[in-house]
Amino acid sequence: MHQVGIAVVGCGYWGPNLIRNFVEEPRTQVYWVCDLDESKLAPVRRRYPFVRTTTRFEDVLSDNEVEAVAIATPVQTHHRLARATLLAGKHVLVEKPLADQVALAQDLVEQAQRCERLLMVDHTFVYTGAVRYLKKLYDDGWLGDLWYIDSVRINLGLFQHDVNVVWDLAPHDLSIVTHLLGKDPETVQAIGACHTGNHVEDVAYLTLDFGNQLIAHFHVNWLSPVKVRHMIFGGSDRMIIYNDIEPSEKLRIYDRGIEVKADNREGVYNLLVSYRSGNMWVPALDGTEALKVEIGHFLDCIERGEQPITNGEVGLRVVRILEAAHMSIKAGGKRVAL
Questions:
Q1: What would the CATH number be for the domain defined by 126-289+320-337?
Q2: Of the CATH numbers 3.40.50.720, 2.60.120.10, 3.20.20.70, 3.30.230.10, which one belongs to the domain with range 4-123?
Q3: At what angle are helices 78-87 and 102-115 packed, to 10 degrees?
Q4: Considering the entire predicted model, what is its pTM?
Q5: Which residue among 120, 126, 184, 193 has its CA within the 20 to 30 Å range from the CA of 318?
Q6: Nearest-angstrom CA–CA distance, 333 and 207
Q7: pLDDT digit of tens for each residue in the chain (338 aa)?
Q8: CA 313 to chain centre
Q9: Cα separation, 145 vs 301, whole angstroms
Q10: b/e burial code for range 75-111 (CB count within 10 A of at least 16 → b)
Q11: What is the number of other CB atoms lying within 10 angstroms of the CB of residue 29?
Q12: What span, in angstroms and rounded, lies between the C-alpha atoms of 279 and 258?
C-alpha cells in the first residue's frame, strides 16, 4: 500500500488534531510538522519522535517525499502558503476559510487547476455523521420544500484579533447550508457590533436570501454566557433540529408543520391554515470523528484523481458570502447582491 507523504503546517489550535489523524491513518506517512514558534514543536517531538519538525516552510516545500500539505495557520497566511505549496507540485488541505479575500480564494482555485493538484478546504462539519445524514434526507426530499434555516453559534470567546466573529464562526454553518443546498444565496445582509473598542465585531446577525421564499438566518457571538450550536431546518413536509452539542441526539426529525388551503366559497377568499403535529424521531448516526472521515476522503480523492466534496470552488463560495457579509456590516446592514 502506497503511503502519501504528509506535512502539517501550523501547530496552534487545530494543527495537533490534523497531526494525530494523519499519524493514525495507515495510508499516510507524516514527514514534517512546521511552525514558526519553536515552543509549539517541542510537544510534537515528544509525542511523535519519528516526525521531523522545522520552523522553515521551505523545508516542507523542498522535500520530494511530501505529496500533500495540511495548512492550519491564520487565515491571512492561507493564500501565500497554499499557493506556494501548489506551485511546488503538492496537494493542499487548508483550514477554513480558504482565504480572507474573494480574489485570493479565486486565485487559489485557478492555481490548483493549472497545477493539476487537489485543493481541499477543511470544512469539517460537512463530514460529521449528522450533516451527512441531513444531506441525504434533503436530497431524498424528506423535508419537502425548504422554507427557512435558523442557525445559532454562540459562546464566550475565543476573541480573535485578526478576524471578526463572522469570519471566525460563520464559516462552519455557511459550509453546512451551502453544502446542503448546493448553490449561492442571491443576497446577503448583515449587521454587527463591537464591544471591545478594537473595531472587530464580536456579535453579528446574517440573513441570506436564496430566492423562492427561502431565507437563512445566522447568529454568531463571542459574548454569550453559554455555548450554543443549534440549527433548525423548516420544510413543508418535515422539520429538523440539529444540535451539535447534544451527545446522543444531534438530529431530531419532526413530522410537524402547517397545511394551507384556500376557501373561495360564495366569492369570499379565505386562507385556511391548519397545523400538523406528528411524531418525532431520532436517527442513529455514524459516530466516526469528522476529521478522520475528511482525511479519508482527501486520500481517496488523491488516489482516484477526483474532486473533494469541499473543494476549492466550495471554499470560494463561502468566502464570497463572508466578504459580502463584511461589506454589509460596514455599510450599516445594506443588502449585498452576489
A1: 3.30.360.10
A2: 3.40.50.720
A3: 10
A4: 0.93
A5: 193
A6: 10
A7: 789 999 999 999 999 999 999 999 999 999 999 999 999 999 999 999 999 999 999 999 999 999 999 999 999 999 999 999 999 999 999 999 999 999 999 999 999 999 999 999 999 999 999 999 999 999 999 999 999 999 999 999 887 777 899 999 999 999 999 999 999 999 999 999 999 888 899 999 999 999 999 999 999 999 999 999 999 999 999 999 999 999 999 999 999 888 777 766 655 556 778 788 889 999 999 999 999 999 999 999 999 999 999 999 999 999 999 999 999 999 999 999 99
A8: 13
A9: 32
A10: bebbbebbbbbbebebbbbbbbbbbbbbebbbbbbeb
A11: 18
A12: 14
In the chain, CATH 3.40.50.720 sits at 4-123
**Is-contact 313 109, C-beta < 8 A?**
yes
Neighbours of 232 (CB within 10 A): 17
Nine cell digits for residue 16: 495537533
Cα 305 to Cα 108: distance, rounded to the nearest angstrom: 18
Whether cis (ω within 30° of 0) applies to the bond prior to 97 is: yes
In what side-by-side order are the strands of the sheet with 91-95? 52-54, 28-34, 4-9, 68-71, 91-95, 119-122
Residues of the chain with CATH 3.30.360.10: 126-289+320-337
Whole-angstrom Cα distance, residue 93 to residue 15?
12
Return the C-alpha cell found at 27. 495510508
